[in-house]
Amino acid sequence: MREIDVQLKNNDLKHLYLLYGAEDYLKKFYKNRLIKATVAEGDTMNFSSVAGPCEDSTEIINLINTLPFFAPLRVILVEDSGLFNQSDEKLAACIGALPDTTMIIFVEEKVNLSCGTTKAAKKHGEVIKLDTPEPKDLERWGLTFIKRSDKRITRDAWNEFVQRT
Questions:
Q1: Percent of the chain scored above 90 by pLDDT?
Q2: Using CB atoms within 10 A as the burial measure, which of 21, 24, 84, 112 is most buried?
């Protein structure tokens, strides 16, 4: 997760992200941050979204090869496609030759780390597993959130909050 935070902060984004794991909140959080960082508000011409199981990757490949319209980048969001559970040679090849004008964000529940499509994603983009954070990571995140909100919390109050929630 730290890698994606640094990339977002430095505006040094990859052209492919595969966010997967059991933590729905984190997947949604990073998906929205990536979209917000790359797509102008209200720009429906350069943003495409595909949701649900995908038997054939042809539609996604066609979207990947579509040039942006009066913008530097075309962003494609693909959610719960199942494309990373079995190898798809066409998609793996397309990922290997991803145009500089395209960013694609895959959000999946489960992936097969040994399939060719996932290996291509690892080689040419960022593959980030988002599972339930450790308690120390949750504490750091919570305290940072409180600090950004110009609030303070004592250690005893924080421990009570964690115990109750």
A1: 63
A2: 84
Residue 23: count of CB within 10 angstroms of its CB: 16
Q: Report the DSSP pairing between strands 102-108 and 47-51.
A: unpaired
Collect all residues with Cβ–Cβ distance below 8 Å to 51 and sequence separation of at least 6: 78, 79, 80
Length of the chain: 165
Identify the pLDDT of residue 1: 63
31-43: average pLDDT: 92
pLDDT in the model for residue 107: 97
Q: For strand 47-51 and strand 16-20, is the pairing parallel, antiparallel, or unpaired?
A: unpaired
d(CA 159, CA 77): 38
Three-state secondary structure along 11-79? CCCCCEEEEECCCHHHHHHHHHHHHHHHCCCCCCCCEEEEECCCCCCHHHHHHHCCCCCCCCCEEEEEE
Which residues, in sequence order, are CB contacts of 139 under 8 Å at separation 6+? 158, 162
